[in-house]
Specification:
Order of helices and strands: HHHH
Structural class: mainly alpha
Distance between the termini: 9 Å
Strand content: under 5%
Helix content: over 70%
Number of helices: 4
Low-confidence stretches: none
Shape: elongated
């Protein structure tokens, strides 16, 4: 059985980048805590915290999707699970960018949205290739 090597490779990349992103999110959260402690009520940080939490959820989902992809890259019966996780990380990427657009329109970048979607889309393609091995057999 061939499996989907693309799913495996992209899964590994999602694990690595998801872990790095989680560390960066925790650093950003620590920075926000320091800012709140120093500035007190002078700075409104509600939208920033919301964006950080959405980002952290996205990082965790990316990490989990990567693990699921690597664990199941040769199991066509798990293709639907991988497809669902691919859709979840794409949705979280879009939500994160929409929050950025609403809360901080000057910092929104279409390039950021597109570059953030590259790995999840490749993951989804790999999952669909895995699903196609079921129908090919």
């Amino acid at each position: 059985m061939q499996g989907s090597k693309m799913l495996k490779v992209v899964g590994i990349l999602l694990i690595v980048f998801g872990a790095i992103a989680m560390v960066m999110e925790f650093i950003a959260m620590a920075g926000m805590s320091v800012l709140e402690a120093v500035a007190g009520n002078e700075v409104s940080t509600g939208a920033v915290w919301f964006a950080l939490i959405i980002g952290l959820i996205g990082c965790i989902a990316e990490f989990v999707a990567g693990i699921i992809g690597v664990a199941n890259w040769k199991k066509p019966e798990k293709a639907k699970t991988c497809i669902v996780w691919g859709i979840i990380i794409i949705a979280l990427c879009v939500v994160s960018n929409v929050v950025t657009l609403i809360a901080y329109p000057k910092s929104f970048s279409a390039f950021s949205l597109l570059s953030g979607l590259v790995m999840p889309i490749l993951y989804l393609i790999g999952a669909y290739k895995l699903k196609a091995t079921v129908t090919a057999e």
